[in-house]
Design brief:
Blueprint (H helix, E strand, L loop, with lengths): L2 E5 L7 E5 L11 H13 L7 H22 L3 H16 L5 E2 H8 L3 H6 L1 H10 L2 E4 L8 E4 L1 H8 L14 H18 L4 H12 L4 H9 L3 H15 L7 H7 L2 H13 L3 H4 L3 E6 L2 E9 L1 H8 L2 H10 L2 H5 L2 E2 L13 H14 L1 H13 L6 E7 L5 H12 L3 E3 L12 H19 L5 E4 L16 H18 L4 E6 L7 H6 L2 E5 L4 H11 L5 H10 L4 H18 L6 H11 L12
Parallel strand pairs: 9-12, 9-13, 10-11, 11-12
Antiparallel strand pairs: 1-2, 3-5, 4-5, 6-7, 8-10
Helix pairs in contact: 1-2, 3-4, 8-9, 8-11, 9-11, 15-16, 16-21, 21-22, 24-25, 24-26, 26-27
Amino acid sequence: MRKIRVKSSAAQSSSTTVTTTSVWNPQGATILSAMEFYTTRHHNFDDDVEEETNNIVEQNKELALDYLQQRLSLSRVQTQLVTYILWHNAQHAQCFCDNEDLSQMMSVHPLRMFQMMSDLEELESMGYLVCSCNNPRGERAWRVSNVARDALTKDQAFDPDSLRISSNMDFLEAARQYVQEGMRFDSDGTIAANILRLMKRNTHLPVVTSLRKLSNQHDMWVMLLMMITMGVENDESVTPPDLERMLAPRFLRPIFIQLRQGKHPFVQKGYVQPYNQDGMTQSNMWVLTHQAWVDMLGSQEEANMIECCREDEELLNGVIRYQDISSKPLFFSGNTQEQVNRLTHFLHEDQYAQICQNLKQRGMPTGFCCLFYGTPGTGKTELVQQLAIATQRDLFQVDLSTLRDKFVGESEKQVKRIFDRYRALVRLSNRAPILFFNEADAIFGNRMENTQRSVDKMENAIQNIILQEMEKLDGIMICTTNLTTCLDKAFDRRFLFKLQFEKPTNEARKQIWQSMLQGLNDEQATYLANHFDFSGGQIQNISRKQVINAIFTGKEDIDYEQVKIDCQNETISRNNGRKIGF
């Protein structure tokens, strides 16, 4: 280790050793390593060490602070404050750092801390610090915010502009995190301060504009926003203890009385109502109404999306993760295979994102609506699943049996809700999932004219809703059907890609036989392919029979003769049977 020898002016014969660990070296330094150097040097001074040595250490400490100030783009005092508060948070498991702590760490007089108060407040407004007054003395204390800490950990300067939010949903998510933090630290005043700061940074959002129009009282904004953000998670109600964490004590009693008596402005506007639990109204628990979501978000569609997000289990009902789908080889004829490869290429995320961007720039719809049609058993449904694997997209498969309801108007709501849920999934997913309608002819049939029966009117209404949703779809929708003649012409126009699936050629059938029954030799597979005009689904049926036979006989080898018998049984003609009836 290299050493620097410093002669004492008092005694030339004595010498003090300063190791390279006391010398600041910016090469290869990071923000955290500079903070570590600065705080360690500060607390390792020894009274017995000569003054000149201390001066060298102090000079290197200042060099580290220069580096930090340049990286963080803060004033010198602000850089010191962030460094010491983060150091305190790391030492005391995220506990808040008060004036007394800062005074001791920075070795300054307590009165000097009052001069630094404006810097602390500015760091708060920038989002570097989170403030709390929840301590025995009721004094303000701080910690470095999670977003700022994460940036510093990645050796990046925290950018306050990153807290500027572009959508209502992202704003509510940020507010929800502040609420969770406040609940975790049980810090009176923290939630309100952070939410008000968040609103100040995002006055351009409709939700903030709606809150400001509703009232000019900060506590009203905070109360409603907290009820909204708590409502996003699991349809939670708000209780008096929740409000005590949000609002100043002087406001609580009149608010409680107004809520219980139904005289609070939120109750009168229809935004808040008592929580109903198992048919019993709870006077000390309140929830937001759907009208509150609509008015605050400024959009019926976003309100519906929030309603979907409130129940995660229901939102994910019908969603198949692509990791849970088994990979299988598929074989198609030349033209079909080319179209499949083309569609697969388009749906890969990089290509898909670029296509959507180009379509949007030209003012064209960005939705990918695809129709797979053709002979039964030709791999339409299986291809959708393999596309999900190839493009790493989850599959949202619609259960058509749940769309129709015996009550008037409920079926239309169910269909609308399917697309609302899909929009929520697209927004919450890293990659747009695939909306999958299997056997779509059940609801995509021809619309009826001059309808008189309520059932026919319902069918037309359902189809009109689907047509409208397809027109404005932002995602990927795939429908499969065997009966293209039953599809309404309006649906036909809205499908961007139409893939026809025919029975495989002899060569494709041979490949299917060999992939499903790997014990077949080339001659056997060729014979089966040429003599039996099967679809892939029929070949799969016969392959399954072989697996069942192997379990009963205990023989793993393929019984080729039995395979041919199973093929003959599979081809029984419907015309061979005797007619029943007249």
